[in-house]
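Deviation from plan, reported transparently: hypoxanthine complex.
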Amino acid sequence: MTGQFEQIQEAAAAISKVWSGSPSIGLILGTGLGGLASQIEQEAVIPYSEIPWFPKSTVESHKGQLVCGKLASKSIVAMEGRFHYYEGYSLAQVTFPVRVMKALGCHTLIVTNAAGGMNPQYSLADIMVIEDHINLMPDNPLRGINDDRLGPRFPDMCQPYSKELIQIARAAALELGIPTQQGVFVAVPGPNLETRAEYRMLKQIGADCVGMSTVPEVLVAAHAGLKVLGCSIVTDMCLPDHLEPVELPKILEVAARGGERLARLLPKVIEKMA
Ligand code: HPA
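Because the crystal trials were delayed, the predicted structure below was used instead.
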């Protein structure tokens, strides 16, 4: 059986065969945020199905390809479409691409998602720069025997989201006149949305936004020693006393609006990065 370490190397080697770039930044594009990929000066586009050991994307709104090229003159790899726990993948599968990004030479991960806003000060299509997270997924991608070549047994979590990158993101947003929020993201397994009682609880435990992704990838990024910047787009307001049924088309429409802002913001952020 091929071990995880060898699988990562095989996937990275397959990508390097098609694309000779050496990326410093990995980017994960969340639900409805794929438009950002068109900003990339594309050098190679690799369907996940052509990368050994990559799971296949099952969500309609996700494309399922790795876009390799330049953004703000920096070499990057971007996932257009990510894997979710609710699709049935193990968290090892969900986070496998982050391992591959690290193996390709990335030192930074930028992760984006569509999320429900529980902070009443937030508005639809707002960008929330993630300051910290709460993990309510019923599993952990780091569970099991630790491979010391990939990271330490007990990774520290005192600052999984880089303070420096948060500052850069907020400064860039200010320069561009894009409003941003800053807050705590909580990850739930999905696929159902939350009940009013659950939103009330999630807000009370300290979360501003809720979503079904991101935290597993960030745990692995922290384990691998990657710097992380996380941005949520508020696609629906989750105020327990004013809760309305959400519809996927509506979420995608708002995500696209927020995505346009992100597509302006992220190149500026990357330009400012060391
Ligand atoms: N809950 C969980 N995930 C989400 C939500 C939500 O309200 N909105 C977008 N993703």
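The chain has one domain: 23-272. We consider this an acceptable substitute for the interim report.
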